[in-house]
Amino acid sequence: MTETPVPTAVVAADGAVDGEAADWGPLSSLPGNPMMWILILGELAAFGAMFIGFAVARALDPATFDASQAQLDRLLGGMNTMVLVTSGWLVAVAVRRRASGRSYRAAMLGAMALGGLFLAIKAVEYGDKIGRDLTLETNSFFQLYYLLTGFHAMHVAAGIVILGIVTWWDSLENLETGAAFWHMVDLIWVLLYPIVYLLR
């Protein structure tokens, strides 16, 4: 007697079975791949912990933090804020254009170029600080300054690579996934700039 073969369910990388969409709960309604949103939540938690650490360190030594903060270049920090926010806007434009079937790569290239400009401005800022002997060994403020801004700069660099990949890998979901990461990078800087450069 011949046995009837039992169909084997195919499980996709995102947890979907036999072509069905995986249930990620609230994450399922967000644009892009839910796995990216899990990563984003983890990154936001990490930066949140560092912001709390910065606030505690400031409370313990406000005089040192105020004097050290005065050594920062608010103009360059403000320029970088405008650069990154504009880059995020271009990514949003690209997603809308791709969703409507229009050309979107020029907007993505512009966003990546602005990301590169952000890193260039940050390099100028670091060069100025190091030239004035304001380094990791100066005090706790500059240790946290380099930690926060350096960790964020690493995310900007990673984000540029991600944007490049999703620009040429033509898929709306991929584009939305990359856009979600880039908007996280924007959000973190919008919080970091006033916390580190402005608030006293």
UniProtKB/TrEMBL annotation:
Transmembrane segment boundaries: 35-60, 72-92, 104-124, 144-169, 181-199
Lipid bilayer topology: Multi-pass membrane protein
Ranges where the Heme-copper oxidase subunit III family profile domain occurs: 36-200
Annotated GO CC locations: plasma membrane
Predominant location: membrane
Range of residues in the leader sequence: none
GO biological process annotation, one example: aerobic electron transport chain
Compartments where located: Cell membrane; Membrane
GO MF, one annotated term: cytochrome-c oxidase activity
Keywords: Membrane, Transmembrane, Transmembrane helix
PROSITE patterns, sorted: COX3 (PS50253)
Cited Pfam families: COX3
CDD domains: NorE_like (cd02862)
InterPro entries per the UniProt record, alphabetical: Cyt_c/ubiquinol_Oxase_su3, Cyt_c_oxidase-like_su3, Cyt_c_oxidase_su3-like_sf, Cyt_c_oxidase_su3_a-hlx
Family (UniProt): Belongs to the cytochrome c oxidase subunit 3 family.
Entry protein name: Heme-copper oxidase subunit III family profile domain-containing protein
Upper taxonomic lineage: Bacteria, Pseudomonadati, Pseudomonadota, Alphaproteobacteria, Rhodospirillales
